[in-house]
Amino acid sequence: MTRYRHFAAVAGFAAAMSGATLDPGRAQTPGFDVNGCGWYIVLGCSTSRPDAKRSLLQLGGPIVGGGAGSRVINTSDVDGFRNGYYCVADGPYISKEEAGSVAWVEAVPDAYVKRGC
Q1: pTM of the model
Q2: Which end of the chain is flanked by fewer CB atoms within 10 Å, N or C?
């Protein structure tokens, strides 16, 4: 069985984030360059893509969270991340402060902000 790093229990997450929706007046990809550089909120990682996708769905899917959108990223494709993992992440955001202002930590206490490019 795949072990998760930095991933807390997600029961009730969708209810906790039900008020968080994408702001239609805000760009879906707020201010990062064409290579996807920016700040990510990492919600959990696995060595298995299917496990990471299941975790994303348990969290409420890609439209829940901040305006950048949550998704599974392959860390081998993002400089600054340790290779070999699939992480559920929200981002990228323009700044560390912007990423840190999103309320993921309330639902996923082990969530953390990391720069990737």
Answers
A1: 0.71
A2: N
Q: Which tens digits make up the pLDDT trace of 8-21?
A: 333 333 333 333 33
Output b/e per residue, 87-113; b: 16+ Cβ within 10 A: bbbbbbbeeeebbeebebeebbeebeb
Residue 85 reports pLDDT greater than 50? yes
Task: Give the closest residue to 63 by CA, choosing from 96, 101, 17, 26.
Answer: 17
Cis ω on the peptide bond leading into residue 62 (within 30° of 0)? Answer: no
Question: How many Å apart are CA 65 and CA 82, to the nearest integer?
Answer: 24
What's the 3-state SS for 50-61? HHHHHHHHHCCC
In a domain, 87, yes or no: yes
Structural domain boundaries, residue 47: 29-116
Rg for the chain, CA atoms, rounded? 13
Name every residue whose Cβ is closer than 8 Å to that of residue 62 and which is 6 or more positions away in sequence: 56, 69, 70, 71
DSSP helix/strand/coil, 90 = strand
Contact 10, 108 (CB under 8 A): yes
